[in-house]
Amino acid sequence: LKLLGFESEEKDVSLSPDMFEHSNLKGFQQVMYFLLSSLDQERSSNEFKYCWPPVDKKQEAEFRKKVNIWIKELQREHPESFPYVNPALFQMPGGRKFV
After folding, report:
1. What does R_g of the chain's alpha carbons equal in angstroms?
2. For 14-67, how does the pLDDT look when each residue is reduced to its tens digit (9 = 90+)?
3. How many CB atoms lie within 10 A of CB 67?
4. Angstrom distance (rounded) from CA 38 to CA 7
5. CA nearest 27: which of 6, 55, 8?
6. Fewest beta carbons within 10 Å, which of 15, 28, 44, 79?
7. Model pTM greater than 0.85?
8. CA-to-CA distance for 96 and 20, rounded, in angstroms?
């Protein structure tokens, strides 16, 4: 992620090998937004227009929903590159199953 230019917008989110050892919602949001924005800036601006940065539970849920839809599209387009991801992992992003 550092090589791609990732820099967290949050002071309490730091990139480290163990950042998802435990649930890390802010880290997940930052990383997913960065990756999807890097993939398609125009689409990410449109998709996340009303839920980035998420400031309440409703926006967090909307952000997760939009990430899930986008990931499912990528899985359909590139089944050999994207294994199935359980959307429930996006609610508590961390731990062995998440990594």
Report:
1. 13
2. 888 899 999 999 999 999 999 999 999 999 999 999 999 999 999 999 999 999
3. 22
4. 13
5. 8
6. 79
7. yes
8. 8
